[in-house]
Amino acid sequence: MLKLVPPIRPLRSVFGFLILTSFLPACHNQSSDPDPQGAVTRLIRLAGDRDPEVRLTAVLALGRIGAEESASTLRERLQDNDSRVRQWSAWALGNLNRPDALPQEQAVSLVARLGDPVQPVRLAAAQALNELDQDPGIARWLLEAFQSQESEMRKAAARALIGQVGSDALPTLIRASADQDAEVRQAVVAALGELGDARAIPPLLDRLAHDPADSVRAEAAFRLGKIGTADLVWPLRQAAMSDKDAQVRRWAAAAVEAVSSVSGSG
InterPro entries from the entry (predicted)? Predict the structure, then answer.
């Protein structure tokens, strides 16, 4: 998954520029600020400013600092009427210094943003959730979001699920591997591959052989190569020789090499 990087852009608000330059030392190294706690306190206050440029700059700075005491403010900014503020508040929540600094209510707020009408906000929320250590509660909320009728929410939830769920989610993921949306299927294939569970192999092989989307077949080939059992050499070799898409063939060939090197198959 691509990492969000705070934008370097001209600030339309002169006040926003002044905020950014005032707090740059704290953003890079809290110890270099003579009053790091004071800097965070001022930024928290400015995150509620009436000017969206000021709010945006404040949440970016809070995300750079990563102070856990900013979590509740960033959660509030997830409801901001400016989509950029919502997006970078989600990023900032995932960038807090301590993994346990994201209490349950913050995680719930991020899951809710998976249904945001603006795609960059959904992606930022999915990434922030994906950054967290595996947590049964978060996985449960993501699986619930995954049942949404809205394809955009399913896409975002599927991305966030990668690495967050255990084998108990396998039945849900197997059903979702046939989702009508190719992006959802690709993310589900990735999540299945990350499980490393032998029961995930049949649905992955099915996607490799029959999925209409090149991206999904390529993902399946890559994930099967990571699983690496000897019985996968033949289906992967078939895909490497006969798939209609060159990228799928390349990934399948690479997977054959990976499996062969691990299993000793020729």
Answer: ARM-like, ARM-type_fold, PBS_lyase_HEAT
CA atoms of 263 and 259, how far apart (whole Å): 6
Q: What is the dihedral of CA 112, 113, 118, 121, to 10 degrees?
A: -170
Question: Going residue by residue through the chain (266 aa), what tens digit of pLDDT does each one get?
Answer: 445 555 544 444 544 444 554 555 555 454 455 556 788 899 999 999 999 999 999 999 999 888 888 988 999 999 999 999 999 999 999 888 655 545 566 777 888 898 899 989 998 998 888 777 666 777 777 887 777 888 778 888 877 777 777 777 888 889 889 999 999 999 899 989 988 888 999 999 999 999 999 999 999 999 999 988 889 999 999 999 999 999 999 999 999 999 888 766 55
Q: How far is CA 34 from CA 26, 29, 45, in A?
A: 9, 11, 19
Task: Determine the Cα–Cα distance for residues 43 and 232; give it in Å rounded to an integer.
Answer: 54
Which residues 6+ apart lie within 8 Å of 25 measured at CB? 32, 33
pTM of the model: 0.68
Q: In terms of DSSP H, where are the helices of 29-150?
A: 36-46, 52-65, 71-77, 83-94, 104-113, 119-131, 136-145
